[in-house]
Amino acid sequence: MTNKQKYALITGATSGIGYELAKLFAQDQYNLVLVARNQEELDQKASEFKQQHGIEVVTVAKDLFKREAPFEVYDAVKAQGLQVDVLVNDAGQGQYGEFTETDINRELDIIQLNIGAYVTLTKCFLKEMVGRGDGKILNVSSIGGELPGPLQAVYHGTKAFVTSFTEAIREETKDKGISITALLPGVTDTDFFNKADMTESKLVKEGSKADPAKVAQDGYDALMANKDKVVSGLKNKVQVAVSNIIPDDLVAANMHQQGKPSEENK
């Protein structure tokens, strides 16, 4: 089967890393199934990809904060008779602040989005991939999953789950013709921090941000090479490596300091 006959399904496909990943698949002549909440944004991106790359693009507008939404995405794909050859779980959000003060309902939504949607979509499509002995899955995690995350406790916890989950199912399916890869970016120049109310954090305000196109390329290349995971960016590789040597409480204290509100412009 050539790429022109294959479909890649990408969640969070209208912005950030998800959008950049969609561009890479489109350039390689994969047809796309784009999943996001906003139909208007989906239509804009679908039109762009069709015009620029001459591919088929299917859009599915669903709010993956809702538990039933990933199942509905799967049902929508099956109703159109499509086979998903590549699944990219990218959609994710965070919330900034002391855990005792943050909104529990928003955090439960984030757990559903960052974990529940990944698990559901992976379960649905991986079973089909194993059945035919072919398929690829890219789970966008974060270096946050490798580090304690004061002021982002729930987000970091969800990403620790994603990385561990990805490594486990990769091992289970390693002899079944499936490629499963985790992409671990660091701070990246996307809308994530606006949605997380985190723009005043030192990490965001004073630190450098990675180009989402570069992060996407790292993930795409790792998936195509069937690597287990890739930490995007040299600085992030160093940070993760050092955190594996230093005691966890010191790593947490350092992350807490980095995450505090910036003193710039105060």
Automatic annotation (TrEMBL):
Q: Where is the signal peptide?
A: none
Record's InterPro entries? NAD(P)-bd_dom_sf (IPR036291), SDR_fam (IPR002347)
Q: Which Gene3D superfamilies match?
A: NAD(P)-binding Rossmann-like Domain
Q: Which UniProt keywords apply?
A: Oxidoreductase
Q: GO molecular function, one example?
A: oxidoreductase activity
Which family does the UniProt entry place this protein in? Belongs to the short-chain dehydrogenases/reductases (SDR) family.
Provide the protein name: SDR family oxidoreductase
